[in-house]
């Protein structure tokens, strides 16, 4: 992924150095397991471990491994040769009975689990920001919209609570997805354990917090990876949803919220209102990119027979890319929501722009409750509503001046129907559902 | 979906009649909840329930509802009018404070849950067949292949156990997906509960085995549906994988298994070997169709503000289609695997076609263990292996005639290395992992 | 496709009756070509043609063909049997040397060409509407927006001209796509012409306005169909783009245009402003559905060896569906644009809402041209612009009262800079580019 | 894209240096056009051009531009500042009346056109190889397969001719796609030409072989780019198809062709037959990756109003990636096909493995032509065919020994029916169609 959309921690997970480090640990763990089962001389394996620890970062020499690979044309053999160069003959106890796939697939599992942990932390940070801002605006009135058209009032906190609940679901999905891919395969050619004891696989799995793959066929089955990628694709769509909301709110005509601008930051011209929601637009595009991995990941599942290598190029490219992008996008979204500038006055102005029409349904109910047949009530409301809309007059004023209305509902009682709190009376209930009872205080 | 790929039970779930039935039950459940809360006259609601039960299927009159809708241009109003026509004035207690979305989204949740239950039953049937056939062929030797090239022996039962494990994971994914979409929203316009008590939603949810949606915004959020569709897309890819395996096995040159042919069924010509794997090819295409829903489902997530209706057409078309296809495909796969004709003799013939080369790695290990340096051992093995392959001779015979080999390994000991059971010694272990210890008997 | 999103003409193209009609014509054309080449008795083929014409619609009896297929389990054989039942023994001259694929693939080509012609007519109708409305609003001023933020003025006609140009490109793409799939294959098993003369293929192709497929392998290669579907996917995205524009314009806060409402049509409540852009939202969803076919169509290309049948289910389902949807969506878009209600006053009001700020760039240029360094000019403009925006005052008034400004630009000259026509002076140029010189009158 | 799948020439097109070079040329071309129109002092612009040429590569200093951008936070302004630093005050004539989008979109068009030209050269090289190998194997007999099952004979040259025809179509598609994106937009904010003369756009377009975008809206419309990406996606699927063919042919049981192996190259074990089709498997994965760009490219079309920036991140990442991958994949495919090892003897062996059954259809026709009713002829053929298949006997021998057969067809006449040339008699015809009459010599 290009640096512009990358953060170092996620990049490091997929860096060659991290791969070599995991390779070394997996190979050592396998050898130690064999030693524990009496299948290798325990002292030599212990000595190898000591040498490895002594060598430290000298073993993580990607340049030297690449150099050897240029000769052997095989990355795993190059790595083992490199270890032998530094640690000596005891390195021959590594990789016994294993195939390259055992090493590669288990390492990928560990990398994906590391990446998932990072994304879970990203989600935690986002959730924390959404929670804080939701409570900050729990009572900030704003118009609810369906189809882009004003409907009835909600609060801005409710919008954020909905986003919180969505990303909280995404957190659960990501945890499930992490469990999907956190398996270990050390089962040898075509997964038959012909040359390796299944207990070695169990021991290595335990060492890395993985579950042994019940039946691998040289490779860990790719339905696991497809499910993992699919979970990220859903997260990407949620990112797009919240970004789209901000893009709408920042429109010139809406103006209810705005991405943070640095004091000295200029818009694209001399126009001070020209502050563009470039972060949320960027997040929209990043969501498209992240989602794009879902189709090749699904196409990767149907490997031929016990395994083919068609999945490999997709995973080399699309997996790191989508994870780096997801990490970047979640962090950008978090920062954007953290510093989002909210304009409650503009929200109020927008609520007022329909001159009270958003209460018309409640007036209708009140007239009906007074005994007026619904059709007649509808006519009374609509004729005033139409005038209010077309002439820009207050619906309340018009109703109070309409004798047919006041014959049913005293003019003095009408203002009570134009009451925002009627629409927000269950905000606490919803907050308690989303954030838990305790947190609603 | 076209009848060719449809089964009646799944079609029925998405039939207009089922929708009307669920609508009626949801509306009644809401009214009864309100009555229970003292918000509606309990006797009138009870009387309405009685009338509904008396009317029975007369209420499920899609033609009449369509007729009314042609006038009202609103499906929910048409339905309520129809109920009023039959059940009388008490029908006015239905739909109070609710929006159409409350009804539509909760109904969709119930339909999707019903569909998921049907697919879970489909998966159970498939798993049962895969288990039975796996045990039947637990010890049927066959060549394991990587890259389409012969590698080392496995058993046909192991292939089926891998498929079982994959569909067992799919079962778990589908149960998770079912939980994703089994939520209830009865929260009124923009989800604010302004005109309806949240306890009504809770009661309706309980009635249908759903969970109340913590924060709906007139609609149930569509990340839930995207996650549901994504789970089906993974299942489709697993269907494609098993279908692809069968297509490979049925190739003329492989011939290890074959889709069942009716006694009188003809191939496409006079050639008796011309039996085409048309079911598995068809399943491959169906998998592509099912998967195709995942992109629009992800695009559906980012609704504008509290809701827009752009998701609706996708859901009307793609959801029933993909579920009907998944049901059909799982049933077809189950039947195909149930009756799959397996040819163990051909499997043995294919094992033999490399003249024992598949044991060359084990000979290499034996020579190395005898103290010969690996490079020298490799040369000894390879020169015999090359001759075996190129001249079609038995590798065992060649090795027994090679004095440099027999100097290390007595000719009489060599046959023991050409031992299939070496490769199958852990089949029971793997079966116990997949099917549980008990079932391995 | 469900009737809700279907129009009869496109549905008819993919109806079984149309398929049988094409089958009959292709088979007859092949027999007549063979007769012309002296490979069949000309008189008998002529007699067969006469009998077919006499039988007329009796031959298009899908029920009878289905009945026979239930026995023969082969659709083409069932059809040929049916023709023989009605036309007698001369029907034996049909299908000689042909495979089912010859008939099916050539028929699909004809159906897709018919469908493309229908869509081309749909596009023509849309283009006509867009042209008319573009000229109607050639000079209707409206704000141009980048990032959803007011930028500089354009005209509403320019927006429509851009849409016209885009759909005109789509017309070209569709014509290219039509040419892609309009090929004929009558080449027998594995496409070798072993049992059929290549000249027969040429004759049939000519009869139906098709091109002979240069090298078919029993099937017409599926890269053609993938390219066809991809063209439709691009069209779908263009539909989404225009629909998205309308959804934005109809927002309560924007209100510049609105989908047509029937006189008696009600919004969802008593609020007269609650008119939802449901057509354009629906088109957004339909675009997602149409696009969804592109992935399976691409996956269909890599058939195994000379052919497999995995593509068939995708084509049976997704091809008619996407074409029916595209036809419906284009017609709906055309009708929507035809009757779109445009509000020029609201456009003017929105232009005014930034108090003249949209001319600030031009003031800046004028100050710079007067010799003031750009940075100083910027400071002058910005301090007035900020006040205009924050206090809601007219930028022109403020500038005229700013002595540092008027020292450079006489107050009397300033109004000339606040001139919309500066921004619209090239509208005619652009219209001439899009619609041609002549049409610009 | 990772270096593993990158070739330098395509990488260079999307390198920052190439971008700066194009920026400089576009800006200069615009200034020169303005000078030509008398809108800028011609001598100063000429002097600027001279300074630019004198500065040469010093102007392409990405590090310095990045340094300035870190301050200005705007890439285009940073670049212009850098030019001014080196070339002095006359650089102020650059970018007049232009927006960043004018520069960025026109530059992207030029880069995409360069990339398309490179891919066209790649396709030419591939076509040349396919043509050569097709003629080399024009008469190499091999079995044609439908559904993976032996059907009737073709030649290996025919398979390659089909691939040639498919990539020739892809060449046409790519040329069309190149024309789609080769447009120039120099139209200023929201595309209104308020501050720039349309003739400047025309002049710049002409300079770079582009067409002026008829109506841009600050950006070049993204349906063009979607169509471009879709064409590449189809090419990717064709790559997958040919790669899949090779993977099949290299299977152990088929063995008809094989990717080239270096003399010293080892398979994964001591087994000499273990040569894996890793190139074609890799190409299969690369095809999935390339295709994955089609969905985000389609989602990029529906920009909001005149423009938003959501498309940008997709284009920064996915466009270079897919083009680098396509270049790499085409080159790999070309090299693989160039050096493909073909085994005509194995093809013959596979032809023989059905004991003459592939001629059974022709025997059937001969019996029918002799006057025997088709059903009786079928019984005669099938009973011999079944025995041949099940007992591994020669169908010809069996037929010659069957008196009911020889009563109709003299035993001496039967061998003539088992004639491969019957199936290959139109190979020249097909080659002439694909490669032209002349080349068939």
UniProtKB/TrEMBL annotation, chains A, B, C, D:
One of its GO terms (biological process) is 'de novo' AMP biosynthetic process. One of its GO terms (molecular function) is (S)-2-(5-amino-1-(5-phospho-D-ribosyl)imidazole-4-carboxamido) succinate lyase (fumarate-forming) activity. Pathway: Purine metabolism; IMP biosynthesis via de novo pathway; 5-amino-1-(5-phospho-D-ribosyl)imidazole-4-carboxamide from 5-amino-1-(5-phospho-D-ribosyl)imidazole-4-carboxylate: step 2/2; Purine metabolism; AMP biosynthesis via de novo pathway; AMP from IMP: step 2/2. Its EC number is 4.3.2.2. Residues 355-435 form the Adenylosuccinate lyase C-terminal domain. It is an enzyme of class 4 (lyase). It catalyses: (2S)-2-[5-amino-1-(5-phospho-beta-D-ribosyl)imidazole-4-carboxamido]succinate = 5-amino-1-(5-phospho-beta-D-ribosyl)imidazole-4-carboxamide + fumarate; N(6)-(1,2-dicarboxyethyl)-AMP = fumarate + AMP. One of its GO terms (cellular component) is cytosol. Keywords: Lyase, Purine biosynthesis. InterPro entries: AdenyloSucc_lyase_C, Fumarase/histidase_N, Fumarate_lyase_CS, Fumarate_lyase_fam, Fumarate_lyase_N, L-Aspartase-like, Pur_lyase. Belongs to the lyase 1 family. Adenylosuccinate lyase subfamily. PANTHER family: ADENYLOSUCCINATE LYASE (PTHR43172:SF1). This is Adenylosuccinate lyase.
């Amino acid at each position: 992924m290009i640096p512009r959309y990358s953060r170092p921690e996620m990049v490091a997970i997929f860096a060659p150095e991290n791969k070599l480090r995991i390779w070394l640990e997996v190979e050592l763990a396998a050898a130690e397991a064999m030693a524990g089962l009496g299948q290798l001389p325990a002292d030599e394996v212990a000595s190898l471990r000591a040498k490895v620890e002594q060598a430290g970062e000298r073993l993580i020499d990607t340049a030297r491994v690449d150099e050897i690979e240029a000769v052997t044309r095989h990355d795993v053999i190059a790595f083992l040769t490199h270890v032998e160069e530094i640690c000596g003959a005891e390195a021959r106890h590594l990789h016994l009975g294993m195939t390259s796939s055992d090493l590669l697939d288990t390492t990928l599992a560990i990398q994906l689990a590391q990446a998932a942990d990072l994304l879970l932390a990203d989600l935690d940070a986002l959730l924390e920001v959404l929670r804080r801002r939701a409570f900050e605006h729990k009572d900030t009135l704003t118009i609810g919209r369906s189809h882009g058209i004003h409907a009835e009032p909600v609060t801005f906190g409710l919008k954020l609570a909905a986003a919180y609940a969505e990303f909280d679901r995404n957190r659960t999905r990501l945890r499930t997805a992490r469990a999907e891919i956190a398996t270990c395969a050390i089962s040898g050619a075509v997964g038959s354990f012909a040359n390796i004891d299944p207990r070695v696989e169990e021991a290595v799995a335990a060492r890395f917090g993985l579950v042994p793959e019940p039946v691998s066929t040289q490779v860990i089955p790719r339905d696991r990876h497809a499910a993992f990628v699919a979970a990220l694709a859903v997260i990407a769509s949620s990112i797009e949803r919240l970004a789209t909301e901000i893009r709408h709110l920042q429109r010139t005509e809406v103006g209810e919220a705005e991405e943070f601008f640095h004091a000295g930051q200029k818009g694209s011209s001399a126009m001070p209102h020209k502050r563009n929601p470039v972060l949320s637009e960027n997040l929209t595009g990043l969501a498209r990119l992240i989602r794009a991995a879902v189709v090749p990941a699904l196409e990767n599942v149907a490997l031929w027979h016990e395994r083919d290598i068609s999945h490999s190029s997709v995973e080399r490219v699309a997996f790191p890319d989508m994870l780096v992008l997801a990490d970047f996008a979640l962090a950008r979204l978090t920062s954007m929501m953290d510093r989002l500038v909210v304009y409650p006055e503009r929200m109020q102005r927008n609520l007022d722009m329909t001159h009270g029409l958003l209460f018309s349904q409640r007036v209708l109910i009140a007239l009906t409750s007074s005994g007026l047949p619904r059709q007649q009530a509808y006519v009374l409301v609509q004729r005033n509503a139409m005038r209010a809309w077309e002439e820009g007059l207050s619906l309340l004023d018009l109703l109070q001046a309409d004798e047919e209305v006041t014959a049913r509902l005293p003019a003095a009682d009408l203002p009570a129907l134009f009451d925002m709190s009627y629409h927000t009376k269950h905000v606490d209930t919803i907050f308690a559902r989303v954030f838990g009872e305790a947190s609603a205080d």
